Amino acid sequence: MLRSMYSGISGMKNFQVKLDVIGNNISNVNTVGFKKSTITFQDLLSQNMSNSGANPMQVGLGSTSASLNVNHNAGSAMSTGVGTDLTIMGDGFFVVQDPEAPGAEGQYLTRAGNFTVTADGNLVTAQGYNVLGDDGQPINISGYDSYTINRLGEVIGKQADGTEEVAANIGIATPENPAGLRKFGGSLYEMTNIASPGGLVIENAAQAGTEIGSGMLEMSNVDLTEEFTEMIIAQRGFQANSRTITTSDELLQEVVNLKR
C-alpha cells in the first residue's frame, strides 16, 4: 500500500509538470517566433517480488519525467506590411548579439523577426540586440535614402540618385540539432554543444538553403485545440493518481481499525 502511495505521488508530480508546460504553451500562443514544448514520461525502477516463476515478478515504483523537448516546427506566417519584419521560410535561425557583449560573446538565435532600425541605422530586435549579417557583424543601413530586403536576405540600399547596392546579407544559423538549444528568454536561444558540436556557423540564406520573407512574421506554433486536449488528459491523470493515494489511505485506515 505504501508503494501505491508513492507511485501516486510521483504521478501527480509528473502531471503537475505537464500542466506547467501546457500553461506556458498557452500563455505564448500569440508570441512571435515561440516554439511549444512537450514532455514525455517513463517508469521508475521496479521492485523484484520473486524470481521463482518462469518470468520475473516485479512491482513498479511510479513514474518520472523522461524528457522535455521543444517542438521547432514552423509556425504560421502573418503579414504585417512592415519591411523590417522578417520570417525564415524554412529551417534556420536569425543570429543576434547583445551590443554590450565583447567579440563573439552574447550571440543568440531566434525565429522572432520583429526587427526595427535605430537612429544610427542598426537593425535590432525588440530588446535592442543587433541583428548579424553572414559576416558575423551587425547590420547597419545608414547612409542610404531607402532600403529593401529581398527573398535572398540581401539588404539592398538605395541612394538618392537611384543607384542600388547590397549593404548586407541577413545571417542564418542552422544547428544540426535544434532541440538541443537552450531557451534564454525573449524568444532567444543559446547555442550548445548538443545543438551544434562544431559551434555557431553563420551563413546567408542561399548557403543555408532557405529564403527570407519580408513584411511578415512567424507566429507561435502552439495549437490551442491540441493544448486543451492535453490539458484534459493531464487533469484526469492527476485526478486518477490522487485517487490512488486516497484509496491506499482508506486501506491503511482499515488496517488500523483492526486493532480496535
TrEMBL record:
Keyword Iron-sulfur annotated: no
Domain Flagellar hook protein FlgE/F/G-like D1: 88-155
Pfam families per UniProt: Flg_bb_rod, Flg_bbr_C, LlgE_F_G_D1
Domain Flagellar basal-body/hook protein C-terminal: residue ranges: 214-258
Its job: A flexible structure which links the flagellar filament to the drive apparatus in the basal body.
InterPro entries: Flag_bb_rod_N (IPR001444), Flagellar_basal_body_rod_CS (IPR019776), Flagellar_FlgE/F/G (IPR020013), Flg_bb/hook_C_dom (IPR010930), FlgE/F/G-like (IPR037925), LlgE_F_G-like_D1 (IPR053967)
GO cellular component, one term: bacterial-type flagellum hook
Protein name per its UniProtKB record: Flagellar hook protein FlgE
Span of domain Flagellar basal body rod protein N-terminal: 5-35
Subcellular location: Bacterial flagellum basal body
Similarity remark: Belongs to the flagella basal body rod proteins family.
Top-level lineage group: Bacteria
Keyword terms, alphabetized: Bacterial flagellum, Cell projection, Cilium, Flagellum
Major subcellular site: other
GO biological-process terms attached to the record: bacterial-type flagellum-dependent swarming motility
